[in-house]
Amino acid sequence: MANSGKEYEELVRDIQRSLINAGNVPSLKNINIEKNKKIKDRSGIDREFDIYWEFEIGGHTYRSVIKCKDYSSRVSIEKIDAFISKTNDIPGLNLIYATRTGYQSGAKIKAEQHNIQLLVIRDQQEQDWTDEDGTPYLKTINFNIPFQIPPKIFSFELNIDQEWLKSQNTYTAQIIGNVFKTEKSDSIFICNVNNNERYSIHNLSKLLHKKDNNMKYGENAYTEEIENGHIENADSSIKIKIK
């Protein structure tokens, strides 16, 4: 089945539209992209072009036509000559040629002389990943980044220092059970006097990995003995000795 080139024309058109959208130029107005556009030349003859692209910037309208050729070989100088001949009688056009396979050296020279922009639009190939000397470009970067999510605390228990509890008259076991009931986790603090540590229960989850390096993903249990410590509210007006 012969290659009509229609799919390639649509590919080039879609890429052109994507580039315009990605550019996000505020002053670019009245953008119009058409496929199989017919334009009259000086003789009044309709000339059809694969893709027509028109936009306005700074009060001036720019018109471009794109010739799309899905060839299996490089574009020759004769093809460039034919494009020049076709557009000679239509003033004010920017000329663009697009192909998958590249251009012969003569075609490149002729295109440069006539300000024709040459595009190669195709899927990437292995040779795209080497420079002119054959040195490979960096193609893949693999990152191995350790990532830790702070554990979520589902259950939290404190051991009240029973000797301290008996030695004071302010708090009973029942009062202690309710004293922090209305406080948020970031307003309840654990103080380890010997280690000069003070952290909220909310921040405890972030410290658990430091306190236990062997903690694995999944359900864990952590126990810590504090010789000289207490649990308190934010302004330290309430202190309960723990151990």
TrEMBL record:
Q: Where is the Restriction endonuclease type IV Mrr domain?
A: 43-119
Which GO molecular function annotations are given, in alphabetical order?
A: DNA binding; endonuclease activity
- Reading the lineage from the top rank, the first entry is Bacteria
* Any one biological process term the GO annotation gives: DNA restriction-modification system
Name of the featured protein: Restriction endonuclease type IV Mrr domain-containing protein
